[in-house]
Design a protein that fits this description.
With about 240 residues, the protein is an all-alpha fold. Helix content is about 60%, strand content about 0%. The longest helix has 24 residues. The two termini are about 35 Å apart. The relative contact order is 0.11.
Length: about 240
Amino acid sequence: MSSALPLEIALLTGIWDRNAASSGSSLCPIAKNSVSGDFKSVFNEPQVQSLLKLGSNDISQPFRELLSGITAPSSQNVDRQLLHLIVGATCLNAFIQVNWTGPDLDLTPLQIFGIDGVTEKDLNQKATSEISRGGEPAYHLAQYGSLLRVAQLIFEEVDLGLCESAPWWRLRLTRIHQHVLDEPIPFPPSIADDLTPLYGGLCSDRDLAGRLTLEHGLLEHQVGQDQAASDLFVKAARHFGLE
């Protein structure tokens, strides 16, 4: 088993177990902090700060250009790609926490990105404008939209081919993105197509297969594909052994 795989499973399930702890990966401490919800420690890691360092304080530029450390050509190195994955997962989970589950975060996007001369409101408005898609605006009161935008850049534009769980995180990102748009929009067929190989690898475990199928069904339900959603919910129940 790849040393990255136990960490990827821990990130997906939110459970830090013996396999993850004994993986031997140099990124183990960062992954553990992300799984435990200690997002501040993750963002304070030098490797993460280097990845999220802004190339400019001029927020008139797209986030894609501001965060050149993220969007630079990806290295075909497992640890480098896994670091991107951990940061993307942390940003997405932090966005969910601050907007839905609570509690409040103990740091702000301005502190994460080290931006001077702008306000949180300016940064959030910038992110909100870039999150809008398919003619649908993003909810203007969503907080810390820059975290969702960073997650988008990582999961949609960075080569994470060495991380088996990347398609699952794209699915999660797509689901959360739908929640902040005024109306649901169709999602690319590749979101669903890319999940298929996971069932023979990462999700050979029945519980993981059930989780993945359930999350896929929830996305189909969000966009009004109720028959597809129903079929996936039945498959998820079978994976879990439910009757």
